[in-house]
Amino acid sequence: MTISQFIRCAAALVWFVVLTAAAQTPLPLPPTPVPPENPLTPGKIALGKTLFWEEQLSLTGTVACGTCHRPGAGHSDPRTAQGGFGTVHPGPNGVFGVGGDDILASAGVPLHDATGRYQLSQYFGVTPQVGKRKSPPVTSAAFSAELFWDGRATSSFSDPISGATLIAQGGALESQSLAPFLDTSEMGHVGNDAGGIASRIENVKPLALATNLPVDLATWIGTRNYAALFTEVFGSPAITPARIAFALASYQRALNATDTRLDRELAGTPSLTDQERQGRQVFQTLQCNVCHAEALHTDNSFRYIGVRPVADDLGRFALTGNPTHRGQLKVPSLRKESLRAPFMHNGGLPSLDTVISFYLRGGDARGTPDAAQLDPLIIPRSITGPERDALLAYLRDALTDPRIAAELPPFDRPRLYTESTRMPTLVGSGVAGGNGFVPVIAAREQPQVHRQRPPRGERGRRQDCDTRGRPYRSWRAKHGTHRRFRQPLDHHRRRQCFQQWFRLATTRFVARSRARGADAVRALLYRRSRRRQRTLHNPGLPHDRIWG
């Protein structure tokens, strides 16, 4: 081999090593994927933020999207960590506190119908219902082609009204956004459909229940109603489920935690501590990075890791029917993981330390019939005490964007009604009646003072508006009939309509009564005047002849 050949071989070997290292070196979080059918605009993000924190989208006015996805809790539900009544589902066996299958999840709305009348649910009576899985985070959700724990929100998004495909690929966030409004345990009522979502906010003031709105959001909303906001964003005032989904998805695409210490380290600025770098090495040695691949810290796959028996939650199998998918659930991102306790889909592991112990022992399905479904990477492993501390430091500190924990822009938010001091509080306790039962107050909804008054129409009567924000000239113009309750209305609006009709009917009755009374008086006076005239001209006529 000549010297020149040797130099060329050495150079090729060096380039091979460099390229191999570059291929194995993770890059910072890539740009957010955005479907071309729903481009991001500042107005659409602001509208999505308004809708995300709008409690009036639930008929009870007590649950918004942000109720279960708060930034300070890693865009999960902080109530789940508190435990106790209102955060526990009895699990597959249907009995609270028995069998170890209880689920720590999020409380939604009480079971109710379209008029807001409460119904008895199987496990929760007339109290808020708790879901069967813990709320997953919404940050970095834009990078996934399928959302929810079982992946039922697919990449294709269709208009829920017409069925037309609006986004062929990359619309998982749009598909996911409308589901909570239809779920009767989250925000929906019994028998609702997608068409009823928009009607909940047509005549309400945006974020009327919330307080401490971010300044930029409050400035953008101003004194406008939702029709005006939708006009700015979409060009017309029509409020449709598809447009609501587009706005919510746009806001969630803007929620990317890209300022972690790991991000700065991957961008070339040394930011990790020595202990965190060691923890990152342990993370890779234990093959955690196979499922939780950097920089997103998830490969968006579905796996069964043995948290609970397969029969407790069939996972993806319930959607696909594929036997190999039994028990498989989505691998979540580990970004801001330290803020999201408790962990796993059932909230069964209270801390990151218990999560590490779970993986080191190879899950909880070994030696059970479900072991055949267990992912091959879930095997017993061992590390030293310092390695465990380093791994914990890496998961706790290196993957959390400080803006999220402090709820700084773009993660700032309004204060919800349900977390304010205006929320009704219970004082004292009930007294047992003759049958021994003690009454308990369960419903705690806000006073119905938040609905915008429509502009005045004819004769000073309050009238609703058409889709362009113009008042109807009459009830006949709105409904095509004189009947007041032609269209389905919620119970608060129905009461307002009845009061308006009653005032109008009373006014008309009084007016007609006065008119009849005046006519009767005039007729009497006329008969008396005629009698006097006849008496004067015919004084000799008998009395009966005078009256004719």
What is this entry, summarized?
This protein is mainly α and 548 residues long. The protein contains 18 helices and six strands. Among the domains are: 166 residues, Cytochrome c-like domain (Cytochrome Bc1 Complex, Chain D, domain 2, Orthogonal Bundle); 141 residues, Cytochrome Bc1 Complex, Chain D, domain 2, CATH 1.10.760; 56 residues.
If you had to describe this structure to a student in words, what would you say it looks like?
Among the domains are: 42-77 and 141-257 and 407-419, Cytochrome c-like domain (Cytochrome Bc1 Complex, Chain D, domain 2, Orthogonal Bundle); 260-400, Cytochrome Bc1 Complex, Chain D, domain 2, CATH 1.10.760; 491-546. The protein is an all-alpha fold and 548 residues long. Helix content is 34%, strand content 2%. The strands form three sheets. The protein has a two-stranded antiparallel ribbon. The radius of gyration is 33 Å and the shape is elongated.
